[in-house]
Amino acid sequence: MVVAANRTSLQEYLASERMGQGHNSGLGAVIMAIAEGSCQVQQQVRQAALADILGTTGETNVQNEIVQRLDKASSDIFVETLSQSGQVAAIGCEEIEMPVIVQGNTGDGYIVLMDPLDGSSNIDVAVSIGSIFGIWPKKPGETVNDDSLLRPGSEQVAAAYVVYGSSTVLVLATKNNVLGFTLDTESGAYALTHPEIKIPETCLYYSTNEGNNKVLDEPTQKAIALLRNKYSQRYVGSLVADFHRNLLKGGIFAYPADQIRKDGRLRLMYEANPLGFVAEQAGGAASTGYERIMDIVPQQLHQRTPLILGNKDVVEETVAVIRAG
Ligand code: P6P
Fold it and tell me: By alpha-carbon position, which residue is closest to atom 9 of ligand 1?
């Protein structure tokens, strides 16, 4: 399929990388399932109030957060497309308390951890939001159960996110590279627009919720003050949007632990691990402030973590100040 001014489509890229054959057999199908689901989600995001999709369901999720109707719709869409791929053995999802064990999956296949719609608080005010995916290989011959999903981020084979912004961009990180594909809304296909993403050496931005400064411990306040003195503040309040800007332009995102959120606010398995994988593959880093995100051996599917994410040098400098105490 030729899309958008003769650019390579996602499907053509995956075929060229033999993502459908050999030892990677099936990974391409998982990525296409993510792409297909994101096309459906972005249609609803773009329709929003017109599709009567805004507002809440009246329920609270496992995070004890009010469920936005688009959260639930996105979760249902991706569970469906991933399950239909025939290559996914289990799914962990921010919106679903227990793992979804995909029936009948006997092949090797993959385990996908996802935040189907990140940045929910921005949905009703038309600000960029996103979807985040971590992809782990199922252990050969394993009969998946709930514990099968508790794998360190270092065992991911790929990660992806979609940012629903002024354009819809799918960023895919594999063991070899990080690429960006932009949705051609006319053809409904993703076209390769960012063939090799590397986080710039120069850090321009820092992204943190300055309103939390008063509840940070002193070493963390000092670390944030250093960022404030050196870089421009950009904070959307959607992790995917903040990370995407910093990945392309050079920046650091920091949501450290504080006196209220002692374990941090963001989720390890389907926010920090996938974006940490993307960051490291693009030459960046991801830390809790005390250890590498992808080294953490998870204890719970929905556990939270502090997150310092972006330019490797700046992450290391920030961590050094936090740890200096
Ligand atoms: P705060 C969105 O709800 C989210 O999970 C991330 O996308 C975002 O980075 C963070 O929370 C924003 O949190 O406390 O600054 O509103």
Answer: 239
**237 C-beta closer than 6 A to ligand 1:** yes
Reference 117, options 57, 206, 180; nearest CA is: 57
Does the beta carbon of 209 sit less than 6 angstroms from any atom of ligand 1?
Answer: yes
Return the best residue to mutate from 239, 261, 308 for the ligand 1 pocket (most ligand atoms within 8 A of CB).
239
Q: What is the largest CA-CA distance in the chain?
A: 55
Write down the residue that tokens 């740890």 correspond to: 323
Domains and CATH numbers, the chain: 10-194 (3.30.540.10), 205-324 (3.40.190.80)
Among the listed ranges 1-5, 163-167, 292-296, which one has the minimum average pLDDT value?
A: 1-5
Å from CA of 212 to ligand 1 middle: 12
- Rounded distance between C-alpha atoms, residue 174 and residue 179, angstroms: 9
Structure tokens at 135: 């992809």
Give, in order, the Cα–Cα distances in Å from 92 to each of 155, 167, 263: 15, 27, 20
pTM above 0.85, yes or no: yes
